Amino acid sequence: MITVIIDRSSGDNSIRGIYVSGHSGYAESGSDIVCAGISTLCYTAANALEDICGYDNEEFLTVHESEDDDVNLRIAVPEHGSEQQRQNAQVIMRTAELGMISVASSVNDGQDRFVEIIHSR
Fold first, then answer.
1. Domain 2-120 is classified in which CATH homologous superfamily?
2. Distance CA 112, CA 100 (A)
3. Can you tell me the distance from the alpha carbon of 45 to that of 64, in angstroms, rounded to the nearest whole number?
4. Could you give the CA distance from residue 78 to residue 49 in angstroms, rounded to a whole number?
5. What is the residue extent of each domain of the chain?
6. Which among 12, 67, 114, 119 is most buried, taking Cβ atoms within 10 Å?
């Protein structure tokens, strides 16, 4: 199962980071559309933080792949930047969150769970 943790600030409810780990098990590695969908959302968010907000991906993106193809990915929103950069970053992160919630709701059912979304503060 893919575990997605959405880490929010307790003060203003802004998203501080998104942490993704695991493999969905929906299909064989390399053919798994659930993993592909979640990965696409993560990398799109990371590219947008770099392109739209001007952040350097080396300061907010960490990716580790294990020998068994499990991926651990972390996107931590930088705390610096202009008000506009921070607002844009929140829109990007919220959009990624909504996409991940949508993927989870479309593939999870009563018996099979492929994506778990956890909200933390």
1. Cysteine protease Prp (3.30.70.1490)
2. 17
3. 17
4. 9
5. 2-120
6. 114
In whole angstroms, give the CA distance from residue 4 to residue 119.
8
The tokens of 99 are what?
A: 């996409």
DSSP string, 56-112: -HHHHEEEEE-TTS-EEEEEE--S-S-HHHHHHHHHHHHHHHHHHHHHHHHH--SS-
What's the CA gap between 29 and 32, in Å, rounded? 6
Paired tokens of 7: 């880490």
